[in-house]
TrEMBL record:
Location of this chain's protein in the cell: Cell inner membrane
Its biological purpose: Part of a membrane-bound complex that couples electron transfer with translocation of ions across the membrane.
EC nos: 7.-.-.-
Modified residues (FMN phosphoryl threonine): 172
Protein name: Ion-translocating oxidoreductase complex subunit G
GO molecular function: electron transfer activity; FMN binding
Biological-process GO terms, alphabetical: electron transport chain
Amino acid sequence: MNRATSLGVLSLLAVVGVAATFFVHQATAPRIKHEQRALAARTLLDILPAASYDNQPLDQPLPLEHAQLSHSILLGGYRATHGGQPSAVLLRSEVSGYGGPIELLIVISANGKLLGSKALAHAETPGLGARIAERPNAWLQGFIGKSLGDPGDAGWGLKKDHGQFDQMAGATITSRAVIEGIHDSLRYFDEHRQQLLGSPAHE
């Protein structure tokens, strides 16, 4: 086999290899995308009561990217509906913890009450602030049912700061940041209720 023939064979094999890779990618891309979406749904929707929505909230993103609030940044959000009516809003928020940014998911019902919250990402100290990511999380569950007016603004703080909430043991900075982030999100919801829900909310 001469040099020209060898180069031709190698070029043909390279083309066949690239084509095969392309077709395999095309064939598997939808399944990979579906799996990624299912993972995102499990991560973001597991604290939203299943009976409270019948849409695909991830298909209804809200235009909130990087809205700067008093103590946090809103990274994005989603709207949940049931029977065509808005039932809840999911807000992704970033606060500054002891070890760095903490990304939170904060879920608020259409009537302004907190349905739940959880940490999506953090860099807090293991055994201390890192407990914010534990599931179930008794400390975070203590905020369920609270709203902007319950307690009032002065109550949204640690007891050591004259507020109404206990802290996670040994994690003052983390606890304070999370409380401020939840309070920020409830205030933002109250001020932008029409925009977030898309229609007037009913109790």
